[in-house]
Amino acid sequence: MKIKTSPSEIYDEYEKGRSFNSSHGLYDTVEKNQSFYLGDQWRGVNAPDLTKPVFNIIKRVTSYFAAMIVSDDVGVNVVPFHATDTNKAIADVISKQVEAVLERTKANTKCRTNIKNCAVDGDTCMFVNFNPDIETNQDAKGDIELEIIDNTNVMFGNPYSDDTQSQPYILIVQRLFTDQVKDMAKSMGVSDEDARRITPDSETMSLVTKSADELTTVITKFWKEKKEIEVGFDPITKQKIKRTRTSVHMTKVTRDVTLREPVDMGYVNYPIAYMTWEHVKNSYHGRSPITGLIPNQIFINKIYAMCMVYMTNMGFPKIFYDQNKLGKLSNDVTKAVALPNMDMAGKMLDAIKAPDFSNQIIQLVDSTISYTKDFLGASDAALGNISNPNNTSAIVAVQQASSVPLEIQKLDYYQFYEDIVRSIVDVMACSYGIREVRITEEQAKTLGLVEGQDPITGEVQYASAMTVNFGVLHNMNYDIDVEIGASSYWSETTQVQTMDSLFEKGIITNPVTYLEGIPDKYIPNKRKIIEEIKAEQEAMQMAQAMMAQPVPTNPADPNVTVGMQDGEDNRAPVNEAGNQQLQDVYAASKEFYGGNA
User: Which of 97, 130, 315, 562 could form a disulfide with 431 if both were Cys (CB 3.0 to 4.6 A apart)?
Assistant: First the structure.
């Protein structure tokens, strides 16, 4: 497939993507879902005298979905195929660097936003970008950034497939202020003549409609190409070993100007993680649960609005009076009605109460709310609406059973997070270069990195940092293990409480086992504490082993111990042939010194 790189051709591809999204009603659906989620559920209704109540079950259910799926308990472990001590230590250092990137970029916080966007819009996207302008206080500048991309701003080359890595190309669309785009063009080396051609466009792309005359559409295009790389040298054939590898390329354009020429990024995979809520056949966009809830939400709001109008107008008795007998009667609440010749019997005043509306109306609304939440798995027990929460085990069991319909979305989220981690490692390998990283004393021991020796104690001092060439990740055989726990039922606090309980009850008696089960951030220098405890345990075991050795006793009296006899070698029996010469020398020495005494 020939890849198009000119601004006009890429803009045509962007227009095709917009046409596909519009044909599926994506932009209208996303805007409507966002409005209902935020509580703006009466938009477009022209009824100024009508009370417009909002009973927002959509937000409650959507927030419950996001809370059940998202997790902050994420661990990254890079596992080398050749599990030598050196490879394990290097892989552990890289794992810590990946976790540091996730912490610095606030990946957990952004992923919570991704889950909310996915539930409201139908799908979501995370873009792993390398910003070369970030200061690191090292020779190698730049670092990784994570950017949340709306589903309306991502366009796949094959919109009938939701497989990200198999796409022929991917477009990421941004609407930026024109002056900002011109500054970007200058920083990327665009000539002044081309920069003047960057003008605002009138596209109302996505949900951005304000100040459209000041915005310019910027399109970033990614595609893959195959290339040959050298991976080694064959000493037998005396030839270089080559292999074919896929590499990601990128360019950035506006409608008329190329901001960044096509460049080989070196990535193996697209630096994009994509997740859909409910998969739809023959479309890369998913379906949001809110889309099916909107008719129920409208019905609930309408019924309650009509009930409020009825109660306001008919809730108080109506007063009627005879205007021929009474001059004027005022009643601000019920607006008394004047009737001529109201009663021939002489009645001047009367009150009439309107009939109450049927209780079935309220029952219907309540059952609609209840069935809607139950069918979505967000029952009262799952949401915590329990009047007498005595049987806590049963409540937890009901909550776990209620979360079963979300298992597919939960697994998709785990895969989404793993794709983010893999993209981070991919960007590290291509863009990080050679950098200094912090290491633990245990890693320094394994790698043999010694800084010197303490002049007073003579203790060996190991390095606290090392230089790593992240480019070795290209030729390093490794696997990435991303461990994600369900935050609803498992958290670090629960882990600490469980370990405390097991230790207090004596189920865990070894302090090393207890400390290894506590998260590292709760105990500073945990590794050093564990090593000291192990050293004390080993010393105690050696002392107990020495005390357990048998002590020689007197055959006549077993309760009396016998010391070393005079003239005997305590290392061997007297009658042993190999020891006879030593015994003769000792006997002669004794006789000599004894005679002189």
Answer: 130
CA separation for the pair 248, 264 (Å, rounded): 6
Write out the DSSP string of 386-426.
-S----HHHHHHHHHHHTGGGHHHHHHHHHHHHHHHHHHHH
3-state helix, strand, coil in the chain (%, to 5): 45, 20, 35
Taking alpha carbons only, the member of 67, 66, 36 closest to residue 275 is 66
SS3 for 478? strand
Which run of H or E residues covers position 223? Answer: strand 215-234
How many Cβ atoms from other residues are within 10 Å of residue 333's Cβ? 9
Which residues, at least 6 apart from 71, have a Cβ–Cβ distance to it below 8 Å? 413, 484, 485, 486, 487
CA dihedral 262, 267, 272, 276 (to 10 degrees): 120
The ranges assigned to domains in the chain are 7-43+100-289, 319-353, 491-549, 553-597
**Per-residue DSSP letter, 564:** P
The tokens of 241 are what? 């070993």
H helices present in 338-388, as ranges: 359-375, 380-383
- Determine the straight-line distance between the first and last CA of the chain, rounded to whole angstroms: 110
Q: Residue 396 pLDDT more than 70?
A: no
Q: Pairing relation of β-strands 123-131 and 239-253?
A: unpaired
Dump pLDDT digits (tens) for 534-558.
888 888 888 888 777 665 555 555 5
**Residue range 573-585: average pLDDT?**
58
Residue 128 near residue 122, CB atoms below 8 Å: no
Q: How far is C-alpha 233 from the geometric centre of its chain's CA atoms?
A: 41
Confidence of residue 400 (pLDDT cuts 50, 70, 90): low
Residue 533, Cβ neighbours under 10 Å: how many?
A: 15
Indicate the helix (H) or strand (E) that contains 352: strand 349-352
Give percent of the chain with pLDDT exceeding 70.
76
Tokens of 450: 């010694």
